[in-house]
TrEMBL record, chain A:
Belongs to the CPA3 antiporters (TC 2.A.63) subunit B family. The keyword Transmembrane applies. This is Na+/H+ antiporter MnhB subunit-related protein domain-containing protein. Keywords: Cell membrane, Membrane, Transmembrane, Transmembrane helix.
TrEMBL record, chain B:
The chain crosses the membrane at residues 25-45, 52-71, 83-106, 153-170. It comes from candidate division WOR-3 bacterium RBG_13_43_14. Keywords: Cell membrane, Membrane, Transmembrane, Transmembrane helix, Transport. Residues 118-172 form the MrpA C-terminal/MbhE domain. This is Uncharacterized protein.
Automatic annotation (TrEMBL), chain C:
It comes from the Bacteria. This is Cation:proton antiporter. Belongs to the CPA3 antiporters (TC 2.A.63) subunit C family. Keywords: Cell membrane, Membrane, Transmembrane, Transmembrane helix. It is found in: Cell membrane. It is a multi-pass membrane protein. The keyword Transmembrane helix applies. Its main location: membrane. The chain crosses the membrane at residues 27-47, 72-96. Gene3D superfamilies: 1.10.287.3510. GO terms for cellular component: plasma membrane.
């Protein structure tokens, strides 16, 4: 996929950092404010996709991104499952909230929920980004 | 709550345009109009979590649709063609089914609590005990990640399956020419 | 009452598109419309007049919230809908590469 014009590239350079920080904020504050792993993950995937659309990618770079995305998707899924299995190992109940609850309305509260949010955020962003790479990036063999 | 009705009328008009128009790109833009109206309606019925997700997902849906249309064709050549016999059968069967379905849904909706008066039989307990049992301030996060976390694990598996399907269907190496 | 029926009508427009249209992209659009209608119906069922979004802002304020359970059920379904729509579009794209048309009647003719 070719990149777009200079205007798009400059605007993307300015905006993409803010989108990224917003996505991470949505994931980390998922247990206190609207949002969570699904919303933040989709926003992060949008940031990656914006970068690919604006700057383009050659075949080599696309292969590398695709590999990284699949690794991160597996890491997110395994982290989520690992939290569930840790609950089973420690207390005997699948998905039990085994960590201390902390002070209500503080950032470090709610036990396993922030960890699950981070795992789902990684998984959703990597999954949607690899869907986009497969469909829309460098022409994947329509002409050959 | 008049704005909810206005948005629903707008969505129905946009949906009819999306299904009937000849240019596929215009159809996809109309689909985007429906999706963003859904996001605004989520805000109006006090569901900010859903609105955030719906806006970004709608952008990605339109991007993927446009990517597919750009590498094929954007003219729907079936619009305005001679109507085949099977299509008339399909329309007749659909009308019968739609009538029966509307009747059944009408009966079912009468059993529901009226709009704006949700009973919240389970949710009352979740809201009363959520802050002490789980500790999160966002009730939706409490429900999806603690009370009903197994459901979320299943949904994550479905997403994983669809990603595997997309990547396997679009792979470059190992395909027959 | 009327608002629920309007959601059902939106659902039926999507079903009409799936059953009677011959273009594959129009069928995919019909699936997306049905998803929106059902998600919206769930969110509307959980609404209460004068209630707030289910986020606790201080410990001892009265908890007058809309129903969080339909919202939790819909939240995951929206993201899953994106995944399934992408899978459907990829299959459609491969069909187009093989037959060079979106018309399902033509595709049937070419095959038989």
């Amino acid at each position: 996929m070719k990149g777009m014009s200079l205007i798009v590239k400059s605007i993307t350079n300015v905006v993409i950092g803010f989108i990224f920080i917003y996505g991470i904020y949505i994931i980390l504050h998922g247990h206190l404010t609207p949002g969570g792993g699904f919303a933040g993950g989709v926003i992060l995937a949008g940031a990656f996709i914006l970068r690919i659309i604006a700057f383009g990618a050659d075949a080599k770079g696309e292969d590398r991104s695709s590999l990284t995305a699949s690794v991160f998707e597996s890491v997110g899924g395994l982290l989520f499952l690992g939290v569930a299995l840790a609950g089973m190992a420690i207390t005997g109940i699948f998905f039990l909230n085994f960590l201390p609850k902390g002070v209500p309305l503080a950032l470090s509260s709610a036990g396993i929920i922030p960890i699950c949010n981070i795992a789902i955020g990684i998984k959703v962003s990597a999954g949607l980004f690899s869907i986009f790479l497969a469909i829309a990036a460098v022409k994947s063999g329509i002409e050959d | 709550m008049i704005e909810l009705y206005l948005f629903l009328v707008f969505m129905i008009v946009a949906a009819i345009i999306a299904t009937e128009i000849k240019d596929l790109l215009a159809a996809v833009i109309s689909l985007g109009a429906v999706g963003f109206s859904v996001a605004i309606m989520f805000i109006l019925v006090q569901a900010p979590d859903l609105a955030i997700v719906q806006i970004v997902v709608e952008v990605l849906t339109v991007v993927i649709f446009v990517a597919v249309i750009l590498r094929s064709t954007h003219i729907d050549e079936t619009v305005g063609k001679k109507i085949a016999g099977t299509q008339i059968t399909a329309v007749v069967l659909f009308s019968v089914f739609a009538f029966l379905f509307l009747f059944a849904m009408f009966k079912a909706i009468q059993e529901l609590p009226a709009f704006g008066n949700a009973t919240m039989r389970i949710a009352k307990e979740y809201i009363r005990l959520g802050l002490t049992q789980v500790g999160g301030a966002n009730m939706v996060a409490n429900v999806i990640l603690d009370y009903r976390a197994l459901d979320t694990l299943g949904e994550a598996t479905v997403l994983f399956t669809s990603v595997i399907g997309v990547v396997a269907l679009m792979r470059k190496s190992g395909r027959k020419k | 009452m009327i608002i629920f029926i309007s959601c059902i009508i939106l659902f039926l427009i999507g079903l009409y598109s799936i059953v009677t249209k011959r273009n594959l992209i129009k069928i995919a659009i019909g699936f997306a419309l049905m998803e929106y209608a059902i998600n919206l119906l769930f969110a509307l069922i959980g609404f209460r007049k004068g209630a707030l979004a289910p986020i606790i802002t201080s410990v001892d304020s009265p908890h007058n919230f809309v129903d969080p359970i339909p919202q939790a059920l819909v939240l995951t379904a929206i993201v899953i809908a994106l995944g399934t729509t992408a899978l459907m579009l990829v299959v459609i794209m491969r069909i187009y590469e093989k037959y060079k048309t979106f018309d399902i009647a033509e595709i049937k003719k070419l095959k038989g």
